Amino acid sequence: MGAHPSETDTDGDPANRLGIAPPRTRAWRDGEIEAEGFPVAEVSDYLARPDVVVWLDLCGPRHEDLRVVSDELGLDHVAVEDAVSRHERAKLDRYHGYAFLNVYVPHVSGGDLALHEVSAFIAERALVTVRQDHGFDIDALIRRWDESPDGGLREPTAAFLLYGLLDYVVDLQLEAVQALDDEADTVEDLVFADEFPVKEIQRRSYRLRKNLTRLRRVALPMREVLNTLLRRDLPIVPPPLMPYYQDVYDHTLRVGEQTDALRDLVADLLDTRLALQSNRMNEVMKKVTSWAAIIAVPTAVTGFYGQNVPYPGFSEHAGFIASTVIIVVCSTLLYVIFKIRDWL
């Protein structure tokens, strides 16, 4: 479907200060790129043509920066406020003539989970994506659109662009779940390792549970988002694209199921760690008790022979020999018995 869109040429554009990066624009007609890199102020001109689909991307915009886009598309100030505000929940809100979408893209690096917020305004023939930072790879999304063999843009609708966006977001959530699953395997290896690093296990298991909770909080609302889009009474998704959205919904269910399964696995690992720690403590106590019993033998014998009363062998060399033999025999006997019973 063409090359990647270039950054908008902002020379003479009143919107040249939009966001922390210049806006990116593209227009399709009959599945082919009609134009790209045009000023934001020309979005309404392209939308005035009934056979054109327009995409606009903004990165890190401020509230006043979105006024141009709001004027071009007639957006409600509440939706614009949600697009600028951070930490909005994942949701899909419907307005007159368009919808507002808010989702989160996870990224796992070094065991830490980062969430990047992405918003979108969805009209019949326009899609506006709003990114809070550069954590969301917009070029990867564009490649999905360009390499799609389905020709989803041959009809003037933004539903195909929205499908590519949701499919990419859910795929990234699946990748994050897989990365956390690998981290859970690492924690499992540490739990059953001979070294048994307790502090390392506690730190990594706590971080893993925290990451799973954060991922679950942004992944579960995706079910509601897809359910709303799949409703037959809403004109957002045309019937030909319904199977594609259903596939994304199935992947969303997988994210939720795997996240819940991982949370249960981590809880089981923590219980196993406590059980193993208790077993190791029992092993240590058995060994300490066994050695204490062995050490008690020479203590008892030497104490007996240290009495200040006459006894067989008192003040004689034979008494010393007898006490030494008793100590060696009894200690060896106890050691053998404890070893047979696996107490040492």
UniProtKB/TrEMBL annotation:
Membrane-traversing stretches: 288-306, 318-338
Main location: membrane
Stored InterPro entries: CorA_cytoplasmic_dom, CorA_TM1_TM2, MgTranspt_CorA/ZnTranspt_ZntB
Keywords per UniProt: Cell membrane, Membrane, Transmembrane, Transmembrane helix, Transport
Membrane topology: Multi-pass membrane protein
Region: Disordered, residue numbers: 1-22
Origin superkingdom: Bacteria
CDD domains in the record: TmCorA-like
Subcellular location: Cell membrane
Any one Pfam family match given in the protein's UniProt record, by short name: CorA
Family label: Belongs to the CorA metal ion transporter (MIT) (TC 1.A.35) family.
Name of this protein: Magnesium transporter CorA family protein
